[in-house]
Amino acid sequence: MSIEVYQERLFTLQTAHTSYVFCINEQGIAENLYWGKKIQRTEDFADVSTQHVFVNVNGPQSIQEECSSYGSMRYKETSLRLQFFDGVDDFRYRGCEYKIDGNVLEIVLKDIFYSFSVHLFYQVFEEEDIIKKWRVAENTGKEPVILDRIYSGEFGLFGSGYRAINYNGRWGAEFLREEDSITYGKKVYESLYGLSGHTVNPAFIVHRDGTETTGEVYYGVLEYSGDFKTVIEAVNCGYLNILIGINDTDFQWKLAGGESFTTPAVYGGYSDQGFQEMTHCLTRLSRNYLMPKKKANQVLPVLYNSWYATLFDVKCDEQIALARKAADTGVELFVIDDGWFTGRKNDKAGLGDWFVDREKFPQGLEPLIRVVNELGMKFGVWIEPEMVNPDSDLYREHPEWIYCYKNREVLMGRNQYMLDMTNGEVIDYLTQIFHKLLSENKIDYIKWDMNRYAAERGSASLPKEEWQTIAWRNTQGVYTLIERLRSRHPEVEFEACASGGARVDYGAMRYFDEYWPSDNTDPLDRLMIQESYSYLYPVKYMRAWLTDDFGMNRRKIPLAFSMHSAMCGSLGIGVNLNQISEEDKEQIADYVQQYKEVRATIQMGELYRLQSLQDGDLQALCYNDEDRSVLFVFLDHQRYGATCHEVKLRGLCEDALYRYKIEETEAVKSGAYLMQQGILLKLQGDYDSRMIILEKQK
Ligand code: GLA
Q1: Euclidean distance between the first and final Cα of the chain, in Å?
Q2: Is the pTM of this model over 0.90?
Q3: Residues lining ligand 1, judged by CB closer than 6 Å?
């Protein structure tokens, strides 16, 4: 049984290797007792309390709670804050009711006076070692209740010595992994950008002595793409409290009598075997439950995107020429990025007018799509649905369709305004316009972009009392639009991009088949970005790129290193193929071929981060499945004449034999040898790399 109840007051959620235990304590409060390695016997917890220190307040400040609420002698960050109609601002419950439905437990906490309850939901993903939590606030009375804060979940960890990992990124530098020890006070990771953003990720990773393969790791990912907040607080009573959910800074929700509000979900897990296990559990969860079903178990095609090659300067003939060359290299999906629609000569005009530019494509997209299909490739386009340029027919017709304040200049980001996605008319219009685009053209793929951060939280379609709901409603509007388009065009592959990686989150995963993790395609920077990305997100979901020399760091990196770096995810090519030598094109074609032979292992296998450039000279990673292991090794700069590097593999079958080739020398070794003794590789100079395929012998 994945959910056990002992004496009507002790609840245990059991996964294959972990237990999560809470009780209704003597004061009638839901108290979290344990989260960690599996303890089978629930009754062992019958006399446990988390009040470990003597304090001068009797309130719940001193215990790890399942649902802390502002007030009632709590001084820590709480997961709920509300106002009843008469000004009372604390929620008090004593005891609970509960229901179990398969692997879902519902705990109902009812206020002792007001007709209001909070429902705590827990769903157990046994094989993935993950627990999903979400909440519903329900106003069963007649008077309104104002919700000022309602996080998705609360996690208490006893003791101290924890370290927290998140990112401190920006455009072109997403997923810069950072780590802090949490010794006192609060650590807050949040987004107010209007989407999950480039900076921090809607997730938490907290560990003690965590390495790739050892140490205790607690983690959680939020299924939400809007403004979020994660608070990790070392509470003065000897425990760490972790809260995650919708950001309360720009959120307030009025619940009229009879209404309820459901939060996004958080998926939490525990590993006693370091970060690698965390990655594997999240990858399994994503594939088995979260990714859109249609493509979850298929490999993604090799993609060509013309952005890096032609920017806005899109011409039908030139795109056809590019498509022919892309097909020669083995590409399977050809995508025109920005610039194909009316008025889009640069980033100052055109967004909103989603009609094919007849100057650039006098006969529409059809001639290009025909050639692309004849060449055996699928076809895709870029769109940015949530945006409008002031210089566009859409804005001239509907200036009221943007977020704004009446008496202030509307702020622009990348010369564009944000469409009011809380307005049903806007969503209906966008649904119809993109439905038409997808119906009239044979489009197999959409790159869905979002290129600016939020500013004004004012809407002509909502009363001002509801403007504090805009951040939340905007995200729901985006989800509605994509859901509608997906249901009408189920075969289309959707990619989430937001100025690179500003929408890489578990909310987006429900609706998109892949992410664009960064606009930075410098192969060395990408190794670090990709490595940190892979902590929380599946490899398959990550488009990785080969492009021309990338201006960001002004360095030249050999093709082999660049290709290998791009082959570590779902491969994309963005080089201007109209301008490269035949020799380079042939080499690219060779790499694409090699990639195709092993991409099932890369995209669907298990990732092992063997060595990191953060710790030494090499990045080494391998992807394993039943048939093989694909090993990539990268050396950025040779130092002090060192030529030989040892790489120990992981995740192989000890007794199985693996056949592989280094340069021209073939070898057959046991899994045990490869994992214990490892292999010696000669890597030299700057930017040297290898891909080694180890085929498991049957
Ligand atoms: C953003 C994206 C890029 C590209 C451009 C097009 O910057 O991140 O990949 O699509 O928009 O304008």
Answers
A1: 37
A2: yes
A3: 307, 337-338, 382, 449, 451, 497, 499-500, 519
